[in-house]
Amino acid sequence: MNIGILFLKSNFTGIITFSELNWITTHQSSFTRLEESIAIKLGRMLDSGSINVGCRLNS
User: Fold this and answer.
1) Phi, psi of 53, deg, nearest 5
2) What is the pTM (predicted TM-score) of this model?
Protein backbone atom coordinates (compact mmCIF):
# COMPACT_ATOMS: atom_id res chain seq x y z
CA MET A 1 0.00 0.00 0.00
CA ASN A 2 1.13 3.56 -0.63
CA ILE A 3 0.10 6.49 1.59
CA GLY A 4 -0.21 8.82 -1.40
CA ILE A 5 -2.66 6.52 -3.18
CA LEU A 6 -4.50 5.95 0.09
CA PHE A 7 -4.83 9.72 0.56
CA LEU A 8 -6.22 10.20 -2.94
CA LYS A 9 -8.65 7.31 -2.57
CA SER A 10 -9.87 8.55 0.82
CA ASN A 11 -10.19 12.10 -0.43
CA PHE A 12 -12.16 10.96 -3.50
CA THR A 13 -14.53 8.57 -1.70
CA GLY A 14 -14.71 10.36 1.66
CA ILE A 15 -14.07 7.04 3.42
CA ILE A 16 -11.09 5.41 5.07
CA THR A 17 -11.29 1.83 6.36
CA PHE A 18 -10.07 0.40 9.64
CA SER A 19 -7.55 -1.79 7.79
CA GLU A 20 -6.11 1.31 6.09
CA LEU A 21 -5.84 3.11 9.43
CA ASN A 22 -4.16 0.01 10.85
CA TRP A 23 -1.68 0.01 7.96
CA ILE A 24 -0.82 3.66 8.63
CA THR A 25 -0.18 3.06 12.32
CA THR A 26 1.96 -0.03 11.78
CA HIS A 27 4.13 1.63 9.10
CA GLN A 28 4.40 5.15 10.48
CA SER A 29 7.89 4.56 11.88
CA SER A 30 9.24 4.11 8.35
CA PHE A 31 7.49 7.12 6.78
CA THR A 32 9.46 9.92 5.16
CA ARG A 33 8.70 13.52 6.09
CA LEU A 34 6.35 13.83 3.14
CA GLU A 35 4.50 10.64 4.09
CA GLU A 36 4.24 11.88 7.69
CA SER A 37 2.65 15.10 6.50
CA ILE A 38 0.12 13.13 4.42
CA ALA A 39 -0.75 10.98 7.46
CA ILE A 40 -1.24 14.14 9.54
CA LYS A 41 -3.46 15.58 6.81
CA LEU A 42 -5.58 12.39 6.84
CA GLY A 43 -5.93 12.71 10.61
CA ARG A 44 -7.04 16.31 10.31
CA MET A 45 -9.56 15.35 7.64
CA LEU A 46 -10.94 12.68 9.97
CA ASP A 47 -11.17 15.19 12.82
CA SER A 48 -12.99 17.75 10.68
CA GLY A 49 -15.42 15.22 9.23
CA SER A 50 -14.19 15.54 5.65
CA ILE A 51 -13.62 11.78 5.58
CA ASN A 52 -15.27 9.10 7.68
CA VAL A 53 -14.31 5.64 8.87
CA GLY A 54 -16.33 3.03 7.02
CA CYS A 55 -16.20 0.47 4.26
CA ARG A 56 -16.13 0.79 0.50
CA LEU A 57 -18.40 -1.35 -1.63
CA ASN A 58 -17.11 -2.55 -4.98
CA SER A 59 -19.40 -1.69 -7.85
Assistant:
1) -80, 130
2) 0.87
HEC assignment per residue over the chain: CCHHHHHHHHHHHCEECHHHHHHHHHHHHHCCHHHHHHHHHHHHHHHHCCCEECCCCCC
- For the beta carbon of residue 24, count every other beta carbon within 10 angstroms: 19
Along the 59 residues of the chain, how does pLDDT read in single tens digits?
899 999 999 999 999 999 999 999 999 999 999 999 999 999 999 999 999 999 877 76
Among 6, 14, 13, smallest CA distance to 35 is for: 6
**Dist CA 40 CA 46 (whole Å):** 10
Backbone angles phi, psi at 6, to 5 degrees: -60, -40
